[in-house]
Amino acid sequence: MFLTIFGLYCLFSPIIALLNWIPLVGALLGSIVSLAAFIFALVVGLTISVFVIALAWLFFRPLIGVPLMAGVGASVYFTYFYDWSQ
């Protein structure tokens, strides 16, 4: 789980490093993108990890796997399909 989040965060490290090169505002932009990349990696990494865990639990313990799958479905729905502008 932690390595998934770390790996997704590392995908953004070249962009963060390039933003840090910009004079005057580079550190601020790098910090903002770094925070956004961490939040993205946390949400997507947790969703992917819980999905894989839920698949394993569906086979061995369906009473635990089904609620985990429902949680993954809710996470995907609220991340991609929910209209937050209401």
Largest sheet: none
How many distinct folded domains? 1
Can you tell me the residue ranges where pLDDT is under 50 for at least 5 consecutive residues? none
Average pLDDT: 92
In short:
The chain has helices at residues 2-10, 13-20, 26-60, 62-81. By secondary structure, the chain is mainly alpha-helical.
Walk me through this protein's architecture.
The chain has about 90 residues and is mainly alpha-helical. It has one domain (about 1-80). The chain is about 85% helix and about 0% strand. It has helices at about 1-10, 15-20, 25-60, 60-80. The chain is elongated and about 55 Å long. It starts with a helix and ends in a 5-residue tail after the last helix.
Chain-wise SSE layout:
Layout: H1 2-10, H2 13-20, H3 26-60, H4 62-81
Helix pairs in contact: 1-3, 2-3, 3-4
Descriptive terms for the model:
86 residues, mainly alpha, 84% helix
